[in-house]
Design goal:
With 106 residues, the protein is mainly α. The chain has one domain: Non-ribosomal Peptide Synthetase Peptidyl Carrier Protein, Chain A. The chain is 45% helix and 4% strand. It is built from 4 helices and 2 strands; from the N terminus they run ααβαβα. It is globular, with a radius of gyration of 14 Å.
């Protein structure tokens, strides 16, 4: 998946699930999400779940910081860098999904 596709999916998710539709269409890839209060701890958790479940990418917890979640461009770059083949973690099965989140699955 290319970064432009990731950006489009992130913008759609943020508009639909976090901004209740963004009727003014103000959100774009450069919108300062943290500075404008679009993202908070709860919305970041929702976004990370979307990235894990829909984009099938595990974002390492040490990468969840203000710099990487500043705007959609930064988040898309983080997701792209975390994808399999770029040193990221693949989610190929529910067991893999649990292993990526909780460390080990018995």
């Amino acid at each position: 998946m290319v970064e432009q596709d990731i950006k489009a999916q992130l913008i759609t998710f943020i508009r639909d699930r976090i901004l209740a539709g963004d009727p003014g269409r103000e959100l774009d890839e450069a919108t300062p999400l943290l500075e404008w209060g679009v993202l908070n701890s709860l919305s970041i958790a929702l976004l990370l779940n979307f990235i894990r479940d829909d984009l099938r990418v595990v974002v390492p917890l040490e990468k969840v910081n203000a710099q990487n979640f500043r705007d959609v461009r930064c988040i898309a770059a983080l997701v792209h860098a975390s994808m399999p083949g770029d040193g990221g973690t693949a989610l190929s099965s529910p067991r893999g999904r649990l292993a990526g989140i909780e460390g080990t699955v018995s």
